[in-house]
């Protein structure tokens, strides 16, 4: 996949974040007709079955269970790295190897308000990515700064799902996070240096218990830099086994429900990360004759933009009534791992990196509402 083709892809549509997907998962499909009367609602036009109000939502029958607490670990084997300087005075880092690239993710989601006509979900998350290189990049600015140093993201978000009637629904999410190599005792850089904000909104239609879709936008750092992207959600269950869950074109996943306790997935996803890196040694921009570039402040920090495409297979299985496990394997294509000047106003690209494609694997545990509790509430997974 060329860089040009991926840029074209991003102009067509954007990627909804993980928080949006999990916000959808919190809204389980009600048995039709509902097992118990629903409270009165101010939204007009909702269909009534046996005097019970029906409200639309983004989820469809057959989707996986709601996720309350998620712990995930992902690891990649060694792969080749080539980094090319984009400005005069910097060196290249050719034919090196990353001996470690691992990610740990911990996320939690709480339904702060759960009514048929309004759902509010609060989420907290912590993610950490680590690298190790060989040979040791003791004289290379970027990799010397992130060697054995965690790149972290600590985030809080609110997702709101507002059904209008039995067909139409709204979904919105706002998220704030600290992203980079920060430490809580860091004195030279403040919270504002690492802070990131993103927002998403979508309007959708629930055509049946098995089909829901919607269109909207995402504003954030999904593809590296802060941008506005369109988004399309398409959730459909074709029969008792097969379905599709898509946030086209950035994520498309086929689903196979082998049983109520086991689900298989296959597809691809685009993931983006944006980190602020504090350099261990000041980076000076110099002319070919060795003199400092006029009008350029020496760099103490860099903005690292990482974008990757993953082709993946995933298996989720119920371990206990409230605990599920997941295993995922796939192949990662790295589109960008580039460093930009965030000190000077031009935001010039400083280093252009290429990572070789590599397989990856991950393990995950997540807590769900117990099956008996959902059955008593008249909710079907």
UniProtKB/TrEMBL annotation:
Highest taxon of the lineage: Bacteria
Leader sequence residues: 1-25
Protein name: DUF6268 family outer membrane beta-barrel protein
The entry's keywords: Signal
């Amino acid at each position: 996949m060329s860089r040009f083709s991926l840029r074209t892809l991003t102009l067509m549509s954007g990627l909804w974040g993980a928080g949006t997907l999990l916000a959808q998962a919190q809204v389980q499909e009600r048995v039709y007709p509902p097992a118990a009367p629903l409270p009165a609602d101010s939204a007009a036009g909702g269909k009534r079955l046996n005097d019970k109000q029906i409200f639309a939502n983004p989820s469809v029958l057959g989707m996986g269970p709601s996720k309350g607490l998620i712990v995930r670990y992902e690891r990649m084997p060694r792969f080749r790295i080539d980094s090319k300087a984009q400005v005069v005075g910097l060196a290249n880092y050719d034919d090196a190897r990353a001996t470690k690239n691992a990610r740990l993710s911990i996320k939690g989601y709480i339904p702060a308000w759960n009514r048929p006509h309004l759902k509010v979900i609060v989420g907290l998350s912590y993610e950490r990515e680590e690298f190790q290189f060989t040979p040791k990049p003791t004289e290379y600015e970027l990799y010397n700064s992130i060697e054995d140093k965690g790149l972290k993201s600590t985030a809080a978000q609110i997702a709101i799902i507002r059904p209008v009637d039995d067909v139409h629904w709204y979904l919105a999410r706002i998220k704030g996070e600290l992203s980079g190599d920060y430490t809580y005792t860091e004195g030279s850089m403040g919270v504002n240096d690492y802070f990131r904000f993103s927002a998403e909104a979508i309007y959708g239609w629930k055509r049946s218990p098995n089909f829901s879709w919607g269109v909207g936008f995402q504003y954030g750092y999904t593809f590296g830099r802060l941008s506005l992207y369109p988004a399309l959600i398409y959730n459909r269950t074709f029969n008792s086994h097969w379905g599709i869950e898509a946030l086209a074109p950035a994520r498309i996943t086929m689903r196979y429900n082998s049983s109520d306790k086991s689900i298989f997935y296959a597809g691809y996803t685009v993931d983006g990360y944006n980190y602020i890196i504090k350099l261990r040694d000041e980076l000076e921009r110099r002319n070919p004759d060795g003199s400092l570039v006029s009008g350029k402040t020496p760099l103490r920090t860099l903005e690292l933009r990482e974008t990757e495409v993953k082709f993946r297979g995933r298996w989720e299985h119920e371990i206990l009534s409230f605990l599920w496990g997941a295993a995922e394997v796939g192949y990662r294509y790295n589109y960008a791992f580039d460093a930009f000047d965030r000190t000077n106003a031009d935001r010039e690209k400083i280093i252009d990196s290429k990572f070789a494609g590599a397989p990856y694997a991950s393990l995950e545990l997540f807590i769900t509402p117990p099956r008996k509790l959902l059955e008593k509430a008249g909710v079907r997974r």
